[in-house]
Amino acid sequence: MTQLPKLTDEALLERLQHAAFGYFLQTVNPVNGLVADTSRDNSPVSIAVVGFALSAYPVAVERGWMERTDAVQRSLAALRFFRDSDQSGSPTATGYKGFYYHFLDIHTGARVWQSELSMIDTALLIVGVLTASMYFTADTPDEIELRELADFLYLRVDWCWAQGDGGTIKQGWKPESGFLHYGWEGYSEAIVLYVLAMGSPTHSITGDCYAAWTATYQWENLYNYDYLYAGPLFVHQFSHAWIDLRGIRDSFMREKDSDYFENSRNAVHIQRRYTRLNPHEFVGYDENCWGLSACDGPTDEQPDVFNEARRLFGYAARGVPYGPDDGTLSPSAVLGSLPFAPELVLNAMRNMLLRYPQMLTDDRLSSSFNPTVGASDEQPWVSAGHYGLDQGIVLLMIENHRSQFIWQLTSGCRYISDGLQAAGFEGGWLRQGQPEGAC
Amino acid sequence: MSPFDATLTTPQDAYEEKRLADLHPQSWVNPKPADNYALIIVGAGSAGVAAAELAIAMGVKVAMIERHLIGGTCLNTGCVPSKALIRTSRLYAEMRDAARYGAKVPDNIEVDFAAAMERVRRIRGHLSNRSSVRRLAALGVDLFFGNVRFAGPDTLMVNDQKLRFGKVMIATGTRPHIPTIPGLREAGFLTNANVFNLTELPKRLLVIGGGPVGCELAQAFRHLGANVTIVQDKPLFLEKEERDAAQILSDAFARDGLEVRLNTQVTAVRVENGCKLVDLISADYRSTIEVDAILTGVGRAPNVQGLDLEAAGVKYDAATGIAVDDFLCTSNPRIYAAGDVCLEEQYTDTAAASARIVVHNALMRGNMRFSKLVIPWCTYTDPEISHVGMYVREANRKGIPVKTFTVPMHQIDRAITDSEEIGFVKIHIRDGTDTILGATIVARHAGEMINEITLAMVADIGLCTLAKVIHAYPTQAEAIREAAKAYVRTRITTRLRARLQRWLAR
After folding, report:
1. What CATH number does the domain located at B36-70+132-177+299-374 have?
2. Of A342, A386, B427, B475, which is the most exposed, with the fewest CB atoms less than 10 Å away?
3. What class does CATH assign to B383-505?
4. CA of B204: how far to CAs of A405, B108, B225, B290, in Å?
5. Which residue intervals of chain B bear CATH 3.50.50.60?
6. Checking DSSP bridges between strand B335-337 and strand B161-170, what pairing results, if any?
7. Closest A-chain CA to B97
8. What is the CA radius of gyration of chain A?
């Protein structure tokens, strides 16, 4: 483990990526293809993590980590499960209107934790489904079924319904109380959600809805970078993991003469600047040790005790520069920025691995660490186990950096390019048209 | 009955005696009315007093009518007492936080709540001088106490006395809006109107509503040692403010140990064994909390009832108040309105500014527009949140290209030396120009800092000029100049690059 930082870039990335893939093998229920949210005991399924898994299998086949037939069977298991799942929207169903509850029981697939029907997590699942269908294009009964299922699941999602009576897409819905009464405000990871919703031949929303969302953006000059602001790093990564946003621009980015890829690079610079300034004087922070994002944390919250003063948070979307910031950093959020600023990310990754090797178990990055509240400077607090979203973003972004493989797959998907165009994206690879065999 | 409810009255001490002597002396006898008044002012709050002062200075005969106390909400139950209380609460918070400043945390910090409230009453009594009956009468205002109702388009009644007017300005202000929650009235509750009468700290306080008043008082009571829970039905506090501002405040509340329940509604209140049990619902999650006092901070209701506005042909709405045009004229051309009773922006200085507009427009056939005012405001939490002008979402809605120059306070030396590095200055400009559209400041002293930007906006000063203004070093207001300098840097880069390219192309 301690040798890791000394490997070549390619060898280091191969190790980390392969280890990240191991998460999906370790936590999947092979019967229904569902994958656990975390590696901790009794973890439920996160539907977004299933989306990452479905995108990871093609990578694994290409990298020789998995047989193609095995990958097809795992993917089919998940797709068949979702096809057959209870879509009644009852409190113990799996989904409603083609969307799915955020957290499911790994054995039965029923909703758990009274979780919400999640629009963004469904989008992350569905984009994974479409990614799989773009890879498994062989003329075999299984792969044909896989593609048909992918189409069926995508076309079933009623994106229009998810607008409720508002201008933008709602964040969620619960059978007990209806739509959560807040929508998307400000730049977020929702580009992929809007693109899928606009590309749908069956239930597409209009461009007005996208414009209503981008009207809540904040274009800021911060630390001398012009920047579409979003605090947590994952926001600058999740849509980008699937969609190649290099050089293509919507109306907002045309007006600002930037694009979402460049913006994610600026997010790296801003994180580095913030951790160098280190306003709260946390241990470890510097320009090669950053990564404020949504992650687990060393909460000091007492169960069943209210009103206690708190400086530490549990799982929270930590952000720059306005916080929350409790000294907790997410290493996978650093690696998730790899395609945007490879040199800066690799420098930071090596530095962080050298200084805090405890963040790595089985070559896999923990959700987060916090040197300020550790036993000593060299013994940070480390989040137990692993989180599926972290492993997913690491795997996909390393792949995009190494080969642009995921981007190549999705750029061939007609639904995605149609959605991008409906959102007003132009230029770059969109101008060149899609390859044959688009889904 | 609980000691924390509507029956609570102001302690009758020397301060209270002085305040009443200043603001509504028992011995006051209404003057004999003149035959006709050029201007009658209904309501002697911030707007009323400002209008009276200006009209008198212009040599106009003025009558002013007040139902209760001169000075209105601001002096009696609003800004003045709340800021006085917040100062004491901040001191206790700083005592507990002394180690952060390299100072020794005092042993056994014990909050003397009664003393804090006595100080509130003393300061309120001290400030009541300025709007005292004697002073206004000495200026030449005919001051009437009593109930007002309109008896026709040019006549109104004060108690049983008839007053004729050329013009009227209605500035009756607002009162706390009491939410309709089953059991709330029976259980008893506090509002800003009686919370400053407390002499005993409620150990457990529920604050309904996460708006400015709710947030300020919740944090102040928390700093004074109460266990405070804020219940807010929206997903954020201060929904009008930028979400980053609300985010920072949310962290500050966590730091303070203030419990916040967002997306939550109060469904019912019950009293059992002297305690108030409050039922809450958040989406589908139901819970009950036990408290000693409930403070409602939600919204204000305009004082439009009982005025017989119909008799004067003045249109109004029970929720939004008196309808006025941009010149603050009502549907009766002889009657104007000013202040909270007709404005969405319910701030003391805005009320006074609107009253001056009314005096100009009503008496001098002026055509001053309310919409031309540049209105700053501030929520006095720690950190404070202040704002002036447009929000980004407003600019986006109007199709104005907007860009924000942001300077976190942690970049400012004085904020760091004072351990007050939480917050930011954000200045919104029309993209492509240096014209300031608006600004939000979150900082320990954001209320003081916003004034510089307000001045710049009123005087049409852009970021280029602000960048040239040397600020005393080290001060926290340097953050404003840093934002302006960041703008200038973006300009220089573009220009230099173009010049260099031209030179290279030769």
Report:
1. 3.50.50.60
2. A342
3. alpha beta
4. 58, 20, 9, 8
5. 36-70+132-177+299-374, 184-296
6. parallel
7. A309
8. 21
DSSP A216-232: T--EEEETTEEEE--SS
pLDDT digits (tens, 9 = 90+) for A45-80: 999 999 999 999 999 999 999 999 999 999 999 999
Dist. CA A250–CA A421, nearest whole Å = 8
Six token digits for residue B362: 């009503």
In this prediction, residues A126-151 reach a mean pLDDT of 98
d(CA B423, CA B385): 9
- Contact call for residues A142 and A72 (beta carbons, < 8 A): yes
Cis peptide before B474 (omega within 30 of 0): yes
What's the rounded Cα separation, in Å, for the pair B502 and B500? 5
What sign does the CA torsion over A347, A351, A352, A353 have? Answer: positive
Contact A102, A116 (CB under 8 A): yes
B212-223 vs B79-96: helix crossing angle, rounded to 10? 40
What residues of chain A lie within 8 A of the CB of B411, using their CB?
A: 277
Could you say which of A182, A306, A321 has the minimum Cβ distance to residue B259? A306
User: Please, what are the domains in chain A?
Assistant: 31-216+404-439 (1.50.10.140), 218-389 (1.50.10.140)
Given the cut 0.90, state whether the ipTM is greater than it: yes
- Structural domain B184-296, CATH architecture: 3-Layer(bba) Sandwich (3.50)
Give the nearest chain A residue to B432 (CA atoms). Answer: A256
> Global pTM?
0.93
Which stretches of B173-242 are DSSP H helices?
A: 184-187, 212-223
Compute the Cα dihedral for A320, A323, A327, A333 and give only its sign: negative
